[in-house]
Write a structure and sequence with these properties.
129 residues; mainly alpha; 0% strand
């Protein structure tokens, strides 16, 4: 994943499209999609095990807090700690085609988002039957 993030940052940098902001938002979105799948799974498991229904406001508040925390964390890790610069140096000589990079950029969040409900189904089948 770091390779894709570094190449995406490099592309934004070449096009002068605010690379730090755009890359931070994309990385945060990928992590949020991965997290949301698992958060939905967690709420589902907690609802079954605790016999307590979570309100819509609770879930939306949790998602907003998670989104802000992930965005700040990604900015701090990748740009304040200079991880993105180290990744650019590490992957400088490796190339990736534009079509492949675009495909990965689109499909990666979708894959992570769908992985969470799949794990939920497996957990329910294994532990709650």
């Amino acid at each position: 994943m770091n390779f894709i993030f570094a190449k995406l940052f490099e592309r934004y940098k070449k096009k002068n499209e605010s690379p730090v902001f755009s890359t931070t938002l994309y990385i945060s979105f990928v992590y949020l999609c991965a997290l949301m799948g698992f958060v939905i799974s967690l709420f589902s498991v907690l609802t079954i095990s605790l016999k307590e229904n979570f309100t819509k406001e609770t879930v939306i508040g949790g998602v907003l807090v998670a989104a802000i925390a992930i965005n700040v964390g990604v900015y701090y890790l990748f740009f304040k700690k200079q991880l993105m610069n180290r990744l650019q140096v590490k992957y400088r000589n490796r190339k990736i085609g534009n079509a492949l990079l675009n495909t990965l950029v689109v499909l990666m969040p979708l894959f992570f988002f769908l992985l969470g409900p799949f794990v939920t189904i497996l957990l329910k089948a294994r532990f709650f039957n």
